[in-house]
Amino acid sequence: MYLLVRTFLKSQQEPRLMAHYANDQSMIDAYKNKKDLYATIAAQVYNNNYWDNMEHYEDGTPNPEGKKRRSNCKSIALGLLYGRGTTSVAEQIGSTFEEAQQLIDKFFAGFPAVSTWIEETQKNAYKNGYVEDVMGRRRRLPDLQLPKYTAEDEEGEVEFNPLLFSSGINYDKKQKESSKYIKRLEEATTFKQRSAIKAEAASQGIKIYDNTGFISKAERQCVNARVQGGAATITKLAMIAVSKDSVLKNLKFDLLLCIHDELIGECPRENAEQ
Predict the structure, then answer these.
(1) Which of 28, 167, 188, 239 sits at a 20 to 30 Å CA gap from 181?
(2) How far apart are CA 122 and CA 130, in angstroms?
(3) How far is 119 from 124, CA to CA, in rounded Å?
(4) Whole-model pTM?
């Protein structure tokens, strides 16, 4: 008779990867000392003691406020790793935008190495057009290298094409006109201003393509790809290791599936405990 059993990978894969990538000593020490990472983060964010942020105090008595503080910091940490903005984090923790931003700012102040790592990750992604996870697997993000705006005229020509130069199209004039609108768009500070500039360009037969949304999405994916992508790589390597393990084979353990940071398989009941 077979019994379902579970073999665990390291818990909290994504936060562990964050601590590794950022080389944040406070986070690394928390794991080494078998402390709860989110309670450790909350102690920095809320400027209190570690046990003030656990579901139960050290003596075992319930601590509902501590549970809430820990939950808030878990949402902040994972939100940053998954590319969520302040608005999304605020919705998750049930606070205002301003309150959520304050907590995020305190998180970065308490763990500056994480902030530096995020900035470096995005900087390198802009330069290279891709990011790499912990094992070197790449996620290509070409949208990061797009210009913020591109322009196209009624004939569909965007930029100078030497192969069509003899067609009589005045590229110099068209480029100057489109460049003028793009420069104004880059200097605009409000959505209303940008909309007016696009409408004016359209009246002159120039269509403006706004790439800022694509760029922002790719920027959010930088950190996410390294963290969740890294966790996925580690999980796949673990699945290979488990499937090849001679001890597990002798115990007739068969791998069935993976759920998050957990591998589920089955074996004969008499081998389950071992």
Answers:
(1) 167
(2) 9
(3) 9
(4) 0.78
